[in-house]
């Protein structure tokens, strides 16, 4: 016999106790918190109401189709969509990006080896799409001062195999908006599509602009922008996971659809990569968006804007920290001076009850600390700054984490393609992610692990983390009956 309801709930609560908090404003990555308990409760209620509804067939569940199109309508108003635009709900930003790339590829069957042109700051989901769909990613370095995409360099990278050109609004790593107008113009002139990844900014930038923020044009207002992705589980503050992919016209979207009738079952017809999909997240998103409305989001965005300004003012008083690029959204990247290191500061912040995200070195730039501010965090900025100042002081006292030069040299010489399972086990031990018996061990402090991963070439880092994930996700004994 299975466990009782109370026992199951107790088990769930015990397992959840080790997770990062999703509410309270102290987790500055992965989650987005409005701070509004009633909106959260409403989202959870709608999630439960439609959890068993199936988005596979809109004729069987027309309620989901209605909710999807009302959300697309709301997004269209935010994103200056023209008459005739269309949109689709997906499971998240990565799926929206995958579909944008797949659609661009399938719209050009005449191109045998399609390519897409990306700034190096484009989200890694585009690399995933390149891997899945066989579209070559042509990476173009960004401006080394502003970290915005270099429109001229991207234009020079476009050729007759280019099916898609990408811009970010904003880029995740640095929080800046690319020059979408120039990028889209050159894409259109070359007959290529232009996708704007506004997954993180699409539901907040329009409200910041209404409040006076000066940004380059980035929506469908820009001629040449053919599609935009925007996540609702970010700054629409809805439960995970819902995103929208909007296309300027229905004709542009049509290659996104998939149908298969050549088998004895039902004719498969999908608008996304998923077939069966729970209606719960979509209903939760619809409920929260309908509840908060335009005025509610304007208030939340103003709160975040005030928080960003207070954060930037406070950071000026911590001399070891520098803002990497003037943020144009709700994201801030920080670098540190030589007296300490980012990874130790992140550990110190976690010990004080705050989660901030380390970002590895890239393209000659040192590692950085990433902060995502949401509405619930904004009122806590003074408390956050105090914890950050204490964490920096502790990191300075400890000194920077140093990786032995011989380890740096060894890491640079390793070809991950030549390593077998035993070698990966040994490397995981060296990295501090496994014990001598090969069992995974998550350290209490990640600074030494992150410092070693930071000096590893990207391919080795990827291979190590894949090996770690593989071992982490293997079956384990259960304590359930």
Automatic annotation (TrEMBL):
GO terms for biological process: carboxylic acid metabolic process. The modification N6-(pyridoxal phosphate)lysine is found at residue 234. InterPro entries: GrpII_AminoAcid_Decarb, PyrdxlP-dep_de-COase, PyrdxlP-dep_Trfase, PyrdxlP-dep_Trfase_major, PyrdxlP-dep_Trfase_small. Its cofactor is pyridoxal 5'-phosphate. SUPFAM superfamilies: PLP-dependent transferases. Keywords: Lyase, Pyridoxal phosphate. Pfam families: Pyridoxal_deC. Gene3D superfamilies: Aspartate Aminotransferase, domain 1, Type I PLP-dependent aspartate aminotransferase-like (Major domain). One of its GO terms (molecular function) is pyridoxal phosphate binding. PANTHER family: PTHR42735, SPHINGOSINE-1-PHOSPHATE LYASE 1. Belongs to the group II decarboxylase family. Sphingosine-1-phosphate lyase subfamily. This is Glutamate or tyrosine decarboxylase.
């Amino acid at each position: 016999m299975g466990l009782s309801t109370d026992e199951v709930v107790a088990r769930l609560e015990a397992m959840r106790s080790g997770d990062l908090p999703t509410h309270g404003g102290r987790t500055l990555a992965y989650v987005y918190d409005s701070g509004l308990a009633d909106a959260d409760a409403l989202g959870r209620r709608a999630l439960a109401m439609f959890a068993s509804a199936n988005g596979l067939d809109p004729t069987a569940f027309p309620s989901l189709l209605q909710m999807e199109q009302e959300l697309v309508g709301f997004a269209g108003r935010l994103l200056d969509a023209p008459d005739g635009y269309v949109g689709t709900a997906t499971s998240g930003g990565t799926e929206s990006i995958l579909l944008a790339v797949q659609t661009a590829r399938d719209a050009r069957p005449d191109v045998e080896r399609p390519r897409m042109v990306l700034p190096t700051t484009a989200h890694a989901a585009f690399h995933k799409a390149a891997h899945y769909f066989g579209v070559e990613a042509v990476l173009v370095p960004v401006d080394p001062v502003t970290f915005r995409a270099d429109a001229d360099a991207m234009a020079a990278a476009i050729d007759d195999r280019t099916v898609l050109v990408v811009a970010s609004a904003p880029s995740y790593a640095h929080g800046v908006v690319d020059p979408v107008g120039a990028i889209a113009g050159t894409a259109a002139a070359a007959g290529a599509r232009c996708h704007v990844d506004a997954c993180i900014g699409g539901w907040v930038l329009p409200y910041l602009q209404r409040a006076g923020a000066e940004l380059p044009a980035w929506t469908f207002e820009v001629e040449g922008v053919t599609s935009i992705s925007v996540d609702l589980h970010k700054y629409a503050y809805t439960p995970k996971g819902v995103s929208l992919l909007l296309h300027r016209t229905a004709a542009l979207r049509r290659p996104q659809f998939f149908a298969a009738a050549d088998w004895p079952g039902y004719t498969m017809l999908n608008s996304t990569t998923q077939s069966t999909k729970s209606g719960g997240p979509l209903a939760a998103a619809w409920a929260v968006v309908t509840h908060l409305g335009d005025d509610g989001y304007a208030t939340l965005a103003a709160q975040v804007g005030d928080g960003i300004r207070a954060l930037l003012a406070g950071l000026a008083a911590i001399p070891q920290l520098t803002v990497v690029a003037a943020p144009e959204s709700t994201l801030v990247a920080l670098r540190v001076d030589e007296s300490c290191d980012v990874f130790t500061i992140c550990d110190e912040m976690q010990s004080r009850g705050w989660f901030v995200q380390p970002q590895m070195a890239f393209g000659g730039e040192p590692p950085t600390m990433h902060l995502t501010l949401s509405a619930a965090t904004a009122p806590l900025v003074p408390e956050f700054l105090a914890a950050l100042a204490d964490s920096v002081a502790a990191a300075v006292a400890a000194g920077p984490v140093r990786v032995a030069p011989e380890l740096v040299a060894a890491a640079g010489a390793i070809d991950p393609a030549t390593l077998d399972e035993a070698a990966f086990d040994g490397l995981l031990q060296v990295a501090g992610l496994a014990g001598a018996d090969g069992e995974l061990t998550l350290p209490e402090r990640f600074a030494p692990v992150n410092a070693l991963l930071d000096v590893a070439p990207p391919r080795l880092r990827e291979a190590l983390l894949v090996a770690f994930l593989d071992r982490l996700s293997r079956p384990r004994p259960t304590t359930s009956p």
